[in-house]
Description:
Blueprint: E1 4-10, H1 11-20, E2 23-24, H2 36-48, E3 54-59, E4 75-79, H3 81-92, E5 96-97, E6 103-104, E7 108-111, E8 116-119, H4 122-126, H5 135-138, H6 144-154, H7 160-171, E9 177-183, H8 189-199, H9 208-217, H10 224-239, H11 243-250, H12 252-255, H13 258-263, H14 278-290, H15 295-302, E10 305-306, E11 311-312, H16 314-332, H17 334-346, H18 358-373, H19 378-394, H20 403-416, H21 418-429, H22 432-442, H23 451-462, H24 475-480, E12 484-487, H25 491-496, H26 501-504, E13 510-513, H27 515-521, H28 526-538, H29 550-559, H30 574-595
Parallel strand pairs: 2-4, 3-9
Antiparallel strand pairs: 1-9, 3-4, 5-6, 7-8, 10-11, 12-13
Helix pairs in contact: 2-3, 6-7, 9-10, 9-15, 10-16, 14-16, 14-18, 18-19, 20-21, 22-30, 23-30
Amino acid sequence: MTKYSVHQQPVETLLSWIKSGDVAIPEIQRPFVWKASKVRDLIDSLYKGYPVGYIITWRNPDVKLKDGTLSAGKKVLIDGQQRITALTAAIVGQRILNKNYKEVKIIIAFNPITEKFEVLNKAYEKSPEWINNINPIINDEISITKAIRNYLSMNTEVDEDLIEDRIENLKKIKNKQVGIIELDHSLDIDTVTEIFIRINQKGVVLSNADFVMSKIAADEIHGGNKMRKLVDYFCRLLVDKDFYKHITDNDKAFASHDYFKALKWMGRGNDDLYIPNYIDVLRVAFTYKFNRGKFSDLVALLSGRNFDTRTYENEIAVKSYDLLSEGLMDFVNQTNYQRFLMIIKSAGFISQKLISSKNSLNFAYALYLKLRSLGMPEAEIQHYVKRWLVMSLLIGRYSGSSESTIDEDIKQINEKGIANYMEQMELSYLGEGFWDFGLVNNLESSSVNNNSYNVYIASECYNNTTAFLSKSMKISSLIEQRGDIHHLFPAKYLKKHGYAPKQYNQVANYAYTEQATNIKIGMLPPNEYMSKVREEIESNINNISSIDSLNVLNENLEINQISNSLFQATHLDYEEFLKTRRNKMAMTIKEYYYKL
């Protein structure tokens, strides 16, 4: 069986396909991940006639309709979205979205004398040797005669024939050939998914979520194109509130849809704890609603795949689109979203930087939506969501390739119930060996992105712990105000005694403290600055610390998991201090976990 066909098409034809919708490119692109210099290189390769890779499409599989006929779907873009976006940006002049969802223009300049392309900047803009923007010439907005005349008027000493040839060659870019690989519509979904994965093992790696997004954007029959907008608009509104007016002014059809009504609140909502991208939104909605974790399964179901008969049936496609729509609507629902964030914050995760695993947060939200749909009491939902989030962070449950793990967890929860599966997970992963040895070892780290350390900080926020050497300032307040993380054994002091950064930057050497305290301690060894603190308390002076009694000082050390040995400690005691504090931090995390 022929699995694909290969042919060449000029750039101009490819762009016309995009405009006509023959190839389904989402109306609102995912953020453009290429650097502007890569756009320049693409144009340069086209100009020189070099190959620029293939655009790969797959026509939606024919699905059996109720009347027995087969549908014929649009082509789904499998690979080449970034190249197509680059072409529309440089040649058509279309604005693109950067990674912060801000619209920007990429303008490519051309020097006919040297035949070089560059991203336009002030230097090229001021130089008469450079054509500031190739777009009007290639796009027929200015005649080639006028372009040549304008250039020669500013560069009177150049060879007229040379410039004429090179500007004509510039215009011919739109006639340069681009390879098109069209995968056969009869290929099953597993084969197409395998092709997709192999394609994206090199270069800018796209996930199966990109595959899903192209798939739904291509399906107008089941409303997939509107679902795509729901996901994109939600993600963009999270970081760009001004985009709300753009929707109401420029996409009135969507603005009148129930999807827009569901996310209108985002036009004024403001929270930076959980900022999901389109992959996260799909992940949560799919996991929660389908009790599955592999995006390849979602593509298959949206195509109407019957896993038993290996055929495609419209009823399955309709049901799958309906389920995905329900999942997405539940995701963006204001009550669901804000209650979930409240639960996460109440567990002590008051800042985005305390959650380094986005998939742990995603699964926690999927679990919240699932338990809520089952009608479980709110108190129980909160208990299980908090526990699951912390457990998954502590054991690194979703680090690395997580799809299979997510798939296993949601299926087990669906089959056994959350109470039984949670107990099973705790028995398997959170035994005494974990608390006494595994967690302590995990805290032997110099990275503040360490999951165990971040859970420890969350536990301090949960316990409303007072900052080191402070009478009333809470750690949670310092995190919100970007307060200082203080080295208990100052970094410069340890460095002076021969310690390397990896040694003195151990997380067990960190404590949140007020900036003024941190500055006054400077590079004093612990025994010296702690002696000063004690002397000030006895003299009723508050200079280094705001603590005014020895009892409060001892309590402050205890709640920050710092032993009294700090009063006598020098660099010679550093390693033993770290071991003791790691054990104390681990026990604090354990107590915190079982209080959730």
